[in-house]
Amino acid sequence: MIREQQAEQPASEQFAFRVQDLHRTYFMKGETVHALRGVTFDVLAGEYIAIMGPSGSGKSTLLNVLGCLDRPTSGKYLLAGDDVAQINDYQLSRIRGRRIGFVFQSYNLLQQLNVLENIKVPLQYQGLIGKDANERCRKLAESVGLGSRIYHRPTELSGGQQQRVAIARSLVNDPYFVLADEATGNLDSKTTVEVLDLFGTLSESGKTIVMITHEDEVAARAKRIIRLRDGIIESDVRNE
């Protein structure tokens, strides 16, 4: 498949990350699987992009590499000047915890913790606790419309409210970018719109957002859509 279009990018602007000739190969049951086959693209700081593709296109593998959950077999993934392919497991864990905010379809909240405590979890992993941390988490709860529910537990919240907690948690370390994996997959249509509106607000404030989705109406909210097929980029276009 030939790449249809590479989105133009101003050379003078700062990159959130860069992916260069990325390959990821697996060996399964005696067979070689080429999940990614030479993927190259750059994401500018503040961009809002959607990554799409059918089952087997490589988008889950790309998600794992971008989230520092896996390393490429070859090629480069440059994040804040670090080549992720070349660093050790400890450094990879630190980058994952400090530079990337994750939002998942299943929320991944700790049921025994309240809203404020769930938002605070990434800070605790980094050893950042105390009054300043509490205040930061409180402000994030307010920013996603949950300032009055900070002492509620996940079972006392709707699905949309739980996803708002997850979004606030993804921002608590002020990451280089937010990586959202099918973040609206468990939500009804009305709540999906509300969550996408929140992502839009974050984008307008300058936060870099990378959304993995199979839904065209979700991707339409992004400013740029990258489509994968058979492990390569099929198209890379900007929304008008």
Number of domains: 1
Order of helices and strands: EEEHEEHEHHHEHEHEE
What's the end-to-end separation, in Å?
25 Å
The number of helices is 7
Regions with little confidence, pLDDT below 50 for 5+ residues: 1-12
CATH superfamily, by name, is P-loop containing nucleotide triphosphate hydrolases
Protein described:
The protein is α/β, with parallel strands linked by helices and 240 residues long. It has a single domain, classed as P-loop containing nucleotide triphosphate hydrolases (Rossmann fold, 3-Layer(aba) Sandwich). The protein is built from 7 helices and 10 strands. The protein has helices at residues 59-66, 89-99, 115-125, 131-143, 159-171, 189-204, 216-219; strands spanning 15-28, 31-44, 48-52, 74-79, 82-83, 100-104, 177-181, 209-212, 224-229, 232-238. The strands form 2 sheets. A 6-stranded mixed β-sheet has the order 6-7-8-3-9-10, sandwiched between helices. It has a 4-stranded antiparallel β-sheet with strand order 2-1-4-5, covered by helices on one side. Strand 7 (177-181), helix 6 and strand 8 form a beta-alpha-beta unit. Helix 4 packs across helix 5 (159-171). The longest helix is centred in the last third of the chain and has 16 residues, at 189-204. The two termini are 25 Å apart. The relative contact order is 0.21. The model is unreliable at 1-12 (pLDDT under 50).
